[in-house]
Amino acid sequence: MAMASKVKPWRDAATLILTAHIGRTSTAASQVTPLKSPTSTNHPGSADLVVDKGYIKKAMTPENDLNHRKTIKPLSFDYNTLLLTRNVRRNTFFAGSHVFPGGAIDKADFSAAWMDLFGQAGFQHPADFGQMVSLHKERPPILKNQPTDSPVPTDVAFRICAIRETFEESGVLLLRSIKDCHPDLDNATQTNVPYGAVFDQMAESELKSWRDAVHQNASEFIRLCHNYKALPDIWSLAEWSNWLTPSDNKKRFDTMFYICSLENIPVTKHDEKETTHSEWMLPIDSLTKYCNEELYLPPPQIYELQRLCHFGQQGALHKFASDRAFLGIQRFLPVRMNSRDGLLSLLPGDDLYPENPALHHLKPEEILSTEHTMEEMAQSSQRFHSYEFRTERSPTTTSHVLLNCHINT
Question: Would you tell me how many other CB atoms lie within 10 Å of the CB of residue 343?
């Protein structure tokens, strides 16, 4: 299986941001109000968000600098987000951190057997998957590489991976009955991203048996779907973002992030292998706990949770995710820059972001550096899109750029 070029110093992966309606509105200790329309052309004039000591605050703008951030009004949430704790004994990549479910692509995700299964529902050719595989918008490199020896479209395989890994790690299984799937399901309007279909027709012992089997051999996921005459619910996964681990990290992943809305919180159980704890939390609560050092979040999780904090209602979040699901995404490759008083992690759109960021592994001496302080650099820049690490455990996110049909932090 021609999965990827051997020269790539990273592995491909897929992650799933799962949100679930909680049937009531919850107010946490620190929240925010929604901002202007995320796709508004006057976005640079709006206030963006930053997490600072447990509070969501305005990010750096010419009128609101690093020393004068103002707290925004409280926001209530009617949905939770699933986070899993990575096993410190089984992981070397962000061990012990709280992450969305997900993992590396397996050759089984591109198996031709999937097309045999999808064929039972009428999906005979890539074009039958509609907009999901035929976008003419901005595409990250990870989705441009179609293996020559697999008939499974890359966009489909990465969604299968995200669903499989979510099942392995949390027990949440997203399947649709074959009889309920047909090519027209994806050929309607751009807003036609359905809520996720949770498969709950297994006894607990049976579920555990399948989870163990899939964990040992990803091909068992195909057999599971055959057994229950179902398909992975790829239609409920909307493209959300793409993150490539910074070039100065030794272990790296190029990860597709998808988002899926559930009508209710499903039965969830960590696998005691890759994960040791699972919890559904308000987006703002996870950020507050991070800032209070009650849990650890990797930078992409911080950024994506801050995005979610723009939406207090799951319905509004689902509509936004659906509206932009087929509008394309860009790769986020953070670029590190050492300053006199901390570390900047630059993102695309920042004035300091390099035109051609290095993709190969960087040695410590190759990391960008400056003699200026963060505040001095802020005063000489117009566009900000970065993390600021003044201490290891308390980064803040500054954002004052217009992203491609997406909301920033």
Answer: 19
